[in-house]
Amino acid sequence: MRSGPVLVVLLLFLGMGTRGGTRPQTAVTRAWAVMGTLLEVTVVGPDSASSEAAARAAYREVVLVDSLMSLYRPESELTRLNARAGWGPMAVSQPLWSVISAALDWGRRSGGAFDITVGPLVRLWGFLDGGGPLPDSSEVEALLPLVGSERVELEAEGRRVCLPGSGMIIDLGGIAKGYAVDRAVGALQARGVRAGLINLGGNIGVVGVPPGEGAWSVGITHPREEAGLLGTVRLTRGAIATSGDYERFFVADGVRYSHILDPRTGWPVSERVSVTVWAPTGLAADALSTALFVLGGEEGEALLREEGGEAVWVWSVGEGLEAVASDGWEWITGPCVNQGCPP
Ligand code: AMP
Ligand code: MG
Fold it and tell me: How many angstroms does the Cα of residue 114 sit away from the middle of ligand 1?
């Protein structure tokens, strides 16, 4: 699986130290490979041993989510649930229950653009690995009856989930990282961390702000230039997530097919480059970024307004790119175009 870094985090700790007579603060940053990507946890605090312990606790939350929700692990709870498709309900853990219920809710709120039952299509298009080869349209059509969030049956009593159709597959790739960020943020808060940042492959959540700074500075990776930055946002609360056509894709006959599928047609969404979303929680940001990628500008903006999020869209225009930010983003650098950006 290819999953390149989506966002680069620039941390400005200029204000740390003894300013204002407070105890000296140091930043501890730890990184682990998990959920097919890189997890970076930064904790700022007076005592590096407890910061380190908090970072490890955050990591354990992400490992837990991976062990329950990965499609790549034969023993994960999600893999076992999918294996029961067509065989009746299965009782699931609280975390899997809450992510599936929230995902179905986002399916309704997005008018079906966000749909965790795209699993059979994701597999057909080869996106469980690198992507490809190009399937026949008859193969795509044959799978469409297996896709549709409304087919998933939930029984709150006993937390039972039923996939009624044999061959149905739930894929939480569009939402589980955001949920993992929320759990990791929760782990930092539970240990009394006042300033911390979680970056799980571009899904970012924060606790407080760095001492002496007004915000965390988070750079958005340029979707076409390796190591280039599209711009920088200042994050004080909530979370951001990016969905992009550059994370996993293949090219066939000169056409780029990327890993986000339109559940209504079964085909990869084309003509979009990326969308970065801010929302109050990691889960919401993750679900919204995938939904907005499918919905596009007009419908996407409407959903964003309803949900109180912010977004930066990147479109391809001729040979170049155009970035459009919603009014609430505070851009500090970057070659962005349109009214949402600074002069
Ligand atoms: P993200 O990078 O968060 O946008 O998630 C993309 C991943 O979500 C894909 O790699 C698929 O595993 C899954 N996915 C693809 N299309 C959809 C969709 N329309 N709704 C929900 N999940 C999707
Ligand atoms: Mg997503």
Answer: 8
Any residues with Cβ below 6 Å from ligand 1, and which? Answer: 114-116, 118, 122, 127, 171, 173-174, 243, 247-248, 259-261, 263, 286, 289-290, 293-294
Whether 153 has a pLDDT exceeding 90, the answer reads: yes
Long-range contacts of 130-138 (CB under 8 A, 24+ apart): 130/1, 130/2, 130/248, 130/250, 131/248, 131/249, 131/250, 131/257, 131/258, 131/259, 132/250, 132/252, 132/257, 133/250, 133/252, 134/252, 134/253, 134/257
Q: Which ligand is nearest to the CA of 283?
A: 2
Measured between alpha carbons, how far is residue 118 from residues 103, 113, 264, 285 in Å?
Answer: 12, 10, 10, 19
Other Cβ atoms less than 10 A from the Cβ of 88: the count is 11
Alpha carbons 179 and 201: distance in angstroms, whole number: 13
Taking the C-alpha atoms of residue 306 and residue 295, their distance in angstroms, rounded to an integer, is 14
Which pLDDT score, from 0 to 100, does residue 110 have? Answer: 98
Centre of ligand 2 to C-alpha 287, Å, is: 5
pLDDT at 218 over 70: yes
Q: What percent of the chain shows pLDDT beyond 70?
A: 90
- Of ligand 1's atoms, which has the minimum distance to the CA of residue 103? 21
Ligand in nearest proximity to the CA of 120: 1
Atom 10 in ligand 1: residue holding the nearest Cα: 259
**Ligand positioned closest to the Cα atom of 130:** 1
**What CA dihedral angle connects 181, 182, 183 and 187, to 10 degrees?**
100
Task: Report which residue type is found at 183.
Answer: R
Q: Give the phi and the psi of residue 90 in degrees, each rounded to 5.
A: -135, 135
Query: Ligand 2 mean position to 244 CA, how many Å?
Result: 9
